[in-house]
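Sequence, please.
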């Protein structure tokens, strides 16, 4: 067997080098995209926790305002003020909303009798008012009002100055005239081993609740507080489960030992043998945020791949194609060199016989020309074969190829153009489809309800009414279906008109599956923009009117198409919008639909 010539080896090494560079570049692009997705998800977790704590803290201003407006509230008035607000239902993780009075030392006994007399007169079931744990401690700030009372009877009369964490937070709140949270602690009404915290808002004498620094201690009269069970709050703000690892630490003041608040299915323990966040191949982030005057450090880790298997496989596909091309080019050059050597030998033989026969010489020259033509033809033929197969791939499967994979193949084609002196039109651009997680039966009823639950705070704030009829079960990804409905319901609430938002979903059979119609009474969409709204970063309104990035409907379209369906919209300006989603009917469906169930946020 002949050894490859130096030219063939040089061509092979050159093509292999170009292929390696392209594959490494594409692999790094995929890693950068995964890092970007990880950053976005980690920031979303921090923002969700911040918003939830901010919402709960806002309730304290209402409680303080009620006491400031009437100077003092009776226990009956306090219960009437909070009893209709559905604190436990609307604010997951909140155990109690209460108020603690500064007990005047000079008239301590009279104060205790007055509180007890009013509490008993309210007939709400308050026990006897006793300041605990040390009734004779000077400077007491005792809990005198608490809602709901039933599970929080043990907190009634508790002196917030009797324990270090509560005393420190109350002192900071009083001196800074703003909400301050305690370090994580065991709430007195907690019946499990879960940790919690208190957020306290000071109240001062008079209408001015932001007095000068020198006046705050003298005018301090008490504090409104909210008691929060931390794991419940975190789970309600951030969906957790397999594939997500979340740890939260209360850093507190500089030099203190962090307190670990765990949520998720298995904690990511940085003190164990796990990779440090930010190392190569790691899918974790560390973020700091301020929660009511305390510093929290959040460790976020995603255990599952954030980009599809198709994107991950693309660099390997490019590498394999490049090696195949390099081998074909090497073989073609080797064959050409061999043919050339054979031609030279034949030419020499013909020259040596020239004297003997002019006819033989002419025949030999003709044979030499034929060999030269064959050598040139054989050099190009393997390259035409590869090019032909790529064109056939594009012809038969072009509709299946997606944008990012198409971009990766274009990078490879740019590299192979450097071989154009040897290869003409060897490859056409192609795209690799995205392989998603295997679909499974998904109840769209449950996906819709989960989406509505995620948006509960926004729905209540806007006074929206969200209803649905019976929705089918389809073969899809449950998380993507929830995300799809959350985007459509959120759009209906965001782009609302003057009337309170109304969003409804219904389903009907169509020849190729199910058609899901999601309708709203919002501002509507001009018919010229019906196709444009599904493009990435396509926004019809300026940032000064509606917030957002313009990715919502593009994501909805991508989810629908990945499920094998299609989406369209029917809308006119001022007449609301109806998004029509057609999903394939891949599994057995339940019987006839019943009448729709209403899920109202009012």
């Amino acid at each position: 067997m002949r050894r490859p010539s130096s030219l063939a080896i040089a061509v092979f090494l050159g093509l292999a080098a170009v292929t390696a560079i392209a594959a490494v570049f594409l692999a790094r692009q995929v890693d950068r995209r995964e890092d970007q997705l990880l950053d976005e998800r980690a920031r979303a977790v921090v923002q969700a926790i911040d918003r939830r704590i901010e919402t709960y803290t806002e309730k304290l201003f209402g409680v303080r305002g009620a006491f400031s407006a009437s100077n003092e509230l009776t226990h009956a008035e306090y219960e009437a003020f909070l009893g209709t607000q559905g604190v436990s239902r609307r604010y997951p993780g909140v155990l109690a909303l209460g108020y603690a009075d500064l007990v005047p030392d000079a008239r301590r006994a009279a104060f205790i009798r007055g509180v007890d007399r009013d509490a008993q007169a309210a007939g709400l079931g308050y026990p006897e008012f006793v300041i605990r744990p040390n009734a004779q401690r000077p400077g007491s700030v005792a809990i005198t009002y608490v809602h709901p009372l039933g599970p929080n009877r043990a907190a009634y009369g508790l002196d917030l100055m009797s324990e270090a964490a509560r005393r420190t937070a109350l002192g900071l709140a009083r001196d800074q005239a703003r909400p301050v949270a305690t370090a994580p602690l065991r709430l007195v009404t907690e019946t499990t081993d879960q940790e919690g915290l208190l957020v306290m808002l000071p109240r001062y004498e008079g209408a001015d609740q932001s007095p000068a620094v020198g006046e705050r201690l003298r005018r301090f009269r008490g504090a409104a507080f909210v008691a929060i069970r931390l794991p419940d709050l975190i789970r309600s703000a951030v969906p957790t489960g397999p594939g997500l690892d979340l740890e939260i630490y209360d850093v507190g003041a500089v030099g203190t030992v962090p307190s670990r608040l765990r949520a998720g299915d298995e904690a990511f323990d940085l003190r164990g043998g796990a990779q440090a966040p930010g190392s190569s191949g790691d899918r974790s982030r560390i973020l700091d945020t301020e929660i009511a005057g305390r510093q929290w450090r959040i460790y976020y880790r995603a255990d599952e791949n954030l980009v599809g298997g198709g994107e991950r496989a693309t660099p390997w596909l490019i590498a394999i194609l490049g090696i195949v091309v390099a081998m074909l080019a090497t073989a073609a050059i080797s064959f050409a060199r061999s043919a050339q050597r054979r031609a030279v030998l034949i030419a020499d033989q013909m020259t040596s016989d020239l004297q003997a026969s002019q006819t033989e010489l002419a025949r030999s020259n003709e044979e030499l020309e034929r060999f030269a033509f064959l050598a040139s033809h054989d050099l190009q033929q393997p390259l035409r074969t590869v090019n032909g197969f790529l064109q056939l791939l594009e012809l038969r499967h072009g509709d299946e190829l997606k944008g990012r994979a198409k971009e990766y193949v274009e990078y490879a084609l740019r590299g192979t153009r450097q071989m154009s002196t040897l290869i003409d039109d060897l490859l056409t651009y192609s795209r690799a489809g995205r392989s998603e997680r295997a679909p499974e039966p998904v109840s769209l009823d449950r996906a819709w309800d989960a989406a509505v639950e995620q948006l509960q705070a926004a729905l209540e704030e806007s006074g929206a009414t969200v209803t649905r009829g019976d929705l089918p079960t389809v073969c899809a990804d449950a998380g993507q279906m929830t995300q799809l409905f959350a985007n459509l319901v959120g759009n209906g609430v965001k782009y609302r008109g003057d009337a309170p938002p109304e969003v409804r979903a219904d389903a009907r059979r169509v020849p190729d599956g199910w058609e899901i119609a999601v309708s709203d009474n919002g501002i509507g969409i001009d018919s010229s923009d019906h196709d444009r709204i599904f493009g990435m970063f396509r926004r019809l309104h300026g940032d000064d009117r509606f917030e957002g990035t313009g990715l919502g409907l593009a994501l909805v379209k991508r989810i629908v198409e990945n499920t094998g369906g299609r989406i369209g919209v029917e809308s006119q300006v001022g007449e609301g919008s109806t998004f029509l989603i057609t999903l394939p009917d891949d599994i057995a469906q339940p019987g006839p639909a019943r009448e729709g169930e209403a899920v109202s946020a009012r």
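The CA atoms of residues 9 and 218 lie 89 Å apart.
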